[in-house]
Design brief:
The structure is a homodimer of 138-residue chains.
Chain A lengths: L24 H9 L2 H9 L5 E2 H7 L5 H13 L3 E6 L5 E6 L1 H19 L1 H13 L8
Antiparallel strand pairs in A: 1-3, 2-3
Helix pairs in contact in A: 2-5
Chain A binds a DNA duplex (30 and 30 nucleotides) through helix 4.
Chain lengths: 138, 138
DNA sequence: GAGGGGTGGTTACTAAAAGAAACTAAATGA
DNA sequence: TCATTTAGTTTCTTTTAGTAACCACCCCTC
């Protein structure tokens, strides 16, 4: 056993910008960002404008309802623009705004990280599940 | 009105690593990453080891249950290490693993982005809510 | 020696969200 | 005539998230 850790004084490091605070506006944005679908949608739009059903087909498993909700939220937050074309049937195109592009630049690395580190994650999971004291080892 | 957009050919750009695919292992990780609490916990651990109740106090609004679940998941995925000390009462310390640190390096910018771009987001929300055709303008 | 507080959780209950499937409506193609 | 396309909405069911209470353990004060 190691010796007990230092208890306090590190909380001060998180005082400048309180994403940790419930009332902080940044927390409201995080609520939208902390959503796997939103992350995927943002990344899907990275290469240019995409139509509703194209996104739906590409992001395997997303429902129409959720996609509709996510897009509406992202549009409201100014990250995505919605453009309707007078075709028949109507064509709706979603694209990243300038703001959305600066965000997506930070979302991409996160998604790539998951892809690049799958072996380590898999190994960690196996090790964890194989541990005698793990909940998985019943 | 603009002219209709190009329909296909852009789907191929997303073919190399399919985070978009339901079965893809990276998608499973994304399911954990796409969680506001996980993002906050990872960021909270950035400055060094922290104890359970310290995280709980700092991350305003998180419940014990959720924190417990998130930490367990992050530990299983090999991003966080859990160390119990033989103090009384028992002290449990959570810290980022090397893997977790490479991830947190990408999570931080995302959180900072939210903090830095709040004015733009607020403005976009006001503009959206004030639009005559917006759902908020009933 | 009876409370009050701190440690790190788990368990039950409930409120909110996600997911599946059907439906809208107008027009095109078979 | 019927299926398909467009972009969604509506309804219903299942899953998840969150709230609150409780557990055991020990220290300290009163």
């Amino acid at each position: 056993m190691q010796k007990p850790p230092g208890t306090a004084a590190d909380a001060a490091l998180c005082a400048k910008f309180n994403v940790y605070d419930q009332g902080c506006p940044a927390r409201l944005v995080l609520d939208h960002l902390g959503d796997k679908w939103a992350l995927l949608v943002l990344d899907r739009l990275r290469h240019g404008p995409v139509r509703f059903n194209a996104i739906r087909r590409d992001i395997n498993g997303i429902s129409q309802k959720v996609l509709s909700q996510v897009l509406k939220r992202l549009e409201r937050d100014g990250m995505v623009s919605r453009t309707a074309f007078a075709t028949v049937p109507v064509t709706v195109e979603y694209a990243l705004t300038d703001l959305g592009q600066t965000l997506t630049a930070r979302v991409g690395p996160l998604l790539h990280w998951a892809e690049d580190n799958m072996p380590q994650i898999r190994a960690a999971q196996s090790a964890y599940d194989g541990r005698t004291d793990s909940p998985a080892a019943a």
